[in-house]
Amino acid sequence: MDTTKIQHYKKALLSIQTRINQLLTKEQSFLREFNPLTESLDEGDFSQATVDREMELLSRDALLQISKLVESALKKVESGTYGICERCQQEIPEGRLKALPYTPYCVSCQSIIEKKYEK
């Protein structure tokens, strides 16, 4: 992959990382200010608040996982290994990198990994 493309992906990764950090900061601030579990008045509200709280935590976990992938991808940019599948060591197709610039795997290897976890 040429230097221009790598720099394009680096900018995209940095942009994603910035956005994730903004979302996490905003979420932390909101969670400190308002806990729907303590504000609920009836059982129905409490149930909905519990579901909402769980979804917030799942979203946070997903953002943290993506953040780790972005950090790893940025390290690969610096080391010269960006765009190389961690499993098969082949170049990840550009279409996949455009869709998921932080992906560590090509489509084939990602599919194999997902099938392992389905069992």
From TrEMBL:
InterPro entries: DnaK_N, Znf_DskA_TraR, Znf_DskA_TraR_CS. It comes from the Bacteria. Keywords: Metal-binding, Zinc, Zinc-finger. GO terms for molecular function: zinc ion binding. This is General stress protein 16O. It comes from Atribacter laminatus. The keyword Zinc-finger applies. A zinc finger (dksA C4-type) spans 85-109. Residues 80-115 form the Zinc finger DksA/TraR C4-type domain. Pfam families: zf-dskA_traR (PF01258).
